[in-house]
Amino acid sequence: MPENKNLISNVSDNQFEYLKLIAEIMEVRKRGEKPLAYIRTYGCQQNVADSEKIKGMLAESGFDFVDAPDDADFILFNTCAVREHAEDRVFGNVGALKALKRRHPQILIALCGCMMEQEHIANKIYKSFPFVGLVFGTHSLHHFPELMYNSLVNGKRVFERGNDDKMLYEGIPVRRDGTFKGWLPIMYGCNNFCTYCIVPYVRGRERSRDKNVIIEEAKQMINSGYKDITLLGQNVNSYGKTLPDDVNFSNLLSEIDSIEGDYWLRFMTSHPRDCSKELIDTIANGKHISRHLHLPFQSGSDRVLKAMNRHYDRKKYLDIIKYAKEKIDGLSLTSDIIVGFPGETYEEFKETLSLIKEVEFTSLFTFIYSPRVGTPAAKMDDPVPYEEKSRWFQELLAVQEEIAAKRCASMVGNIEKVLIEEVGKDGEVNGRTSGNIIVELNAPENLVGTFQNVKITKARNWILKGELI
Ligand code: SAH
Ligand code: SF4
Ligand code: F3S
Question: DSSP alpha helices (H): ranges in 243-385?
């Protein structure tokens, strides 16, 4: 039995009672008109998936959703703490709501998500933003109805940061944003404690959802027309470690893959430490699994990787990539990189550059290191000035731009299966390949949400142009 086994529970019936009570309060306040909610989500897909649950709960209380805060009765920002820039945006945007609250004192302004799990942030909100009526962290989602009811009914400010980080709640209603592209969380939290990262502190310990529950949800999504499903977790490769059954991520992936239908299956994020050959083989043999591997390496220097507590080295990373390229036809690789980790030298940064040249990623998510209160890296010596890190960062972008352009150019002439996702500029539509590369093409709007075979005719930097065949 794994020692950090999670406890799975269904969200209590009480919470549904609170949703009814909220509906009654709003009915009186709005004199029968539909109450309106504005939900703004920052950060990663975990937050997007959480917001879809909050919307699911609010929809049960009769709420409709609006795209701007002005007419909303309930405003919620679901926040991200991963970098300082993300936090600054939240503070700026919350500050801008002050005037709105003065004009409409009835509205309830709420903040939730990763930032709110940090005590110093919750305290700052309490002191500096008195018009914020409700604050709760990632651990309190399962009793959001109760918290919202309490703040509506007595007008007092409600601040809550949970700590039951071994619990996992099922049965929260979900209202997905997309009709053909959707997120499916398979696990929550993270146990890795990379030294720069705030996620394990704000999301709690790793816990996996029951395999049968996930498979059932995947079936429902596929049967209701979802074409592109992404399995979500901070480190999907360690799926199952907290479950009593003998399951791992590769088993889960191939069981979902065996569900009949025309759909793509994606997943994120994989951690190189636990990325097994079995997983690569599963992708290679998959029927629906996209030819895309997002495998963040963060740094090309072994010394920096060790200081980051990543538990793999450059060689191990390159070995996995080599194996994956051999096994998976047309594989598209993407990664996350941090530039300017405390103590990183220019020589070490150049090892990151040489790694991206060697692998030839389709695209990269690149970040300048941002110190996070409470993480070990925030206490390390960081002698390189930000301006210098910015220069390294620009150098990296320039190198990657060339690589991406070359990779996209090599696809000209290919016939690719493309999921048409949205109406774009100048009468075009935009879609994505299995490798997650954007394709622009002329096609009727009614093809949005369908797969089409597309001939790639041109490449412009990291975007492809194509035509229907
Ligand atoms: N669980 C995922 C990533 C979660 S955060 C993984 O391990 O890959 C997404 C990305 O943000 C990370 O991969 C990292 O590149 C970046 N990141 C996290 N903390 C950061 C920090 N303090 N400063 C800069 N970038 C950071
Ligand atoms: Fe953060 Fe590392 Fe966990 Fe990813 S694996 S969420 S980078 S601690
Ligand atoms: Fe941000 Fe929380 Fe995701 S910190 S990156 S929203 S897990």
Answer: 249-257, 277-285, 302-307, 314-327, 346-359
Of ligand 2's listed atoms, the one at least distance from the Cα of 191 is 3
Which residue in the block uniquely carries the two structure tokens 């007008």?
155
Could you read off the pLDDT of 172-225 as tens digits, one per residue? 999 999 999 999 999 999 999 999 999 999 999 999 999 999 999 999 999 999
- Ligand 2 binding pocket, CB closer than 6 Å: 190, 192-194, 197, 199-200, 234-235, 271
CA 156/CA 38 separation, integer angstroms? 21
Cis peptide upstream of residue 195 (ω within 30 degrees of 0): no
Ligand nearest to the CA of 85: 1
Q: What is the dihedral of CA 126, 128, 131, 133, to 10 degrees?
A: -10
**φ/ψ (deg, to 5) at 291:** -80, 55
Indicate if ligand 1 lies below 6 Å from the C-beta of 199.
yes
Q: Which residues pair with 334 in a beta bridge?
A: 294, 363
Would the CB of 393 count as within 6 Å of ligand 1?
Answer: no
Atom 5 (ligand 2): residue with closest C-alpha? 192
| Six token digits for residue 229 | 């499903």
- Tens of pLDDT, residues 309-354: 999 999 999 999 999 999 999 999 999 999 999 999 999 999 999 9
Q: Is the CB of 443 under 6 A from ligand 3?
A: no
CA of 261 to the centre of ligand 3 (A): 32
Contact 402, 361 (CB under 8 A): no
Residue 95: how many other CB atoms lie within 10 Å: 12
- Nearest-CA residue for ligand 1 atom 5 is 82
Residues 118-152, buried b or exposed e (16+ Cβ, 10 A)? beebbeebeeebebbbbbbbbbbbbbbbbbbbbbb
Ligand 1 atom nearest 296 alpha carbon: 8
CA of 4: how far to CAs of 187, 191, 208, 275, 333, in Å? 14, 10, 11, 21, 32
Beta-strand pair 134-136/228-232? unpaired
Sequence-distant (≥ 6) Cβ neighbours of residue 329 within 8 angstroms: 291
- Answer positive or negative: Cα dihedral of 26, 28, 32, 33: negative
Dist CA 456 CA 120 (whole Å): 51
Q: Establish whether residue 196 lines the binding site of ligand 1, counting it when its CB lies within 6 angstroms of any ligand atom.
A: yes
- Cα(60) to ligand 1 centroid in Å equals 34
| CB neighbourhood size of 422 (10 A) | 11
Alpha carbon distance 146, 158 (integer Å): 10
